[in-house]
Specification:
The chain is α+β, with helices and mostly antiparallel strands and about 525 residues long. It folds into four domains: about 5-90, GIY-YIG endonuclease; about 95-245, no CATH class; about 250-355, Ribonuclease H-like superfamily/Ribonuclease H (Nucleotidyltransferase, domain 5, 2-Layer Sandwich), CATH 3.30.420.10; about 365-525, Nucleotidyltransferase, domain 5 (2-Layer Sandwich). Helices cover about 40% and strands about 20% of the residues. It has 15 helices and 19 strands. A hairpin with a 4-residue loop joins β17 and β18 (about 480-485). The chain is elongated.
Length: about 525
Amino acid sequence: MTFDISKIHIPSNPGIYLMKDSEQKIIYIGKAKNLKNRVKSYFLKNQNYKTQKLVENISDIEFVLTDNESEAFLLESNMIKKYRPRFNIELKDQQRYTYLRISDEKYPRLLVARRTRDGKFLGKGKIFGPFTRGSSKLLTIGTLRKAFQIRICTQLPKKVCLEYHLGNCEGPCEFKEAQQQYPKHVFALEEILKGKNQTKIFSQKLKEEMKHAADLQQFERAKEIRDTLIRLDSLQTKQKMEYVDNSDEEYFGIGEQDQTVTVMNFRMIHGVIRDSDKFFFDLVGDNSFSNFLFQYYSTHKIPKFILVSELPENTKLLESLLSDQSGFSVQIQCPQKGKRKEIIKLILKNINLIHSKGGDPSLMDLKELLGLPNVPKIIECFDISNHGEDFAVGSMSRFVDGIPNKSGYRKFKIKTVSGRDDFAMIGEIIKRRYFRLLEEDSQLPDLIVIDGGKGQLNAALKSLQSLGLKTPCISLAKENEEVFLPNKKNPILIPKNKGSLQILQHARDETHRFGVTFNRAIRKNQIK
């Protein structure tokens, strides 16, 4: 039974919505500028199959309001990590992110925050994060402890230990002055863990305090502040070095099949592809490329340049959020030419290969060369076989995954054309073939190939247009193996060693052979 949306009050504010099943388990979390408009849209009739399955499982909806869309974006991401709803995007490697905890003790410690399987944090204290694997904020937890003089002992000793003598801790266990300074070190650490913008603000504030202390001739205080600024500067220098060493730019291509999106990426370091990953998510509710990227960069190093096959929705907002998170300007671009464009094309080629389930790579080439919307898994090829004015027949071969499907071959006796008019004959058999498929509600091919030149192609296109079909159609002229495309004056030439051309040639030759055999059979019967 579908949830009755009219029974609940939905605010018009920005925020997030938590959809729950009959057991009050959260099954989906989404965000919206206007919660009322977005949530009501789920209950319209024009939803895809997978969103309909989500709606069928909804028993209750809870709302959390935010001041703006940016806050909703962040809150949605954190809530998804916490509850892991089954209809949301969840990356395979969600555990790459880390949270830090400043313990709830008299002299707090800095620890890695541990979590239970249901996402709850263990231990008391303040939680900071998520930080990415290898994040410059972490550098190593030890670096942060040393920089801010944070103790590492599990139990406070009565006398100072080796860490004090190494200069990593001021010894609050023994010295009163260190006990007075310790809360200031913890506060400084908290400010840094809140974000890189906080680091800049905090550094500026310290500089002003140092100047003020010097003016008042409080030189000990000024020296303490100077030492803290030196530690901060040391941290930031290491962060810059880490960025140069580990992160240049990252490429993403996306493809959709059966309401499931495939995302593939290449990580480029110093111009070389060093790593690649594949991710999949269902087109349910607000699941989108934009959401995917934000989730992805909560667990991975953020580069300065993110190159994509198509721009995500809310590009500017996403750039702003990632820039705030990383501390430098992040740009999301869709390359139009050059080496970057070639890399994106290579990723899309790989995605097509995934979607074809390991099909012939030559079919991927065909898709790219001919500018087809889909990989031509099903190809139907047509030819006219003439022998004098009285003996003309049409033939069709059918190829599935680049292989002849002989049970799908068809032959046609010409019924409406007299004389030797190849163009009109092509028009007739194309119209008859696809009128029948439409009547039977049968599957249409991904590509139609005509044996011939521009004239034969135009005749076929005219028949397809009369049926209201936009199925991709090309022609292959035998003399120079030229490929003619609709609305293009000049043909294209595919190199003869390319498997993509060989598939077209094979389909054309099979159609011709099948037609000639049929023509001979008719003439033989006529003579008898």
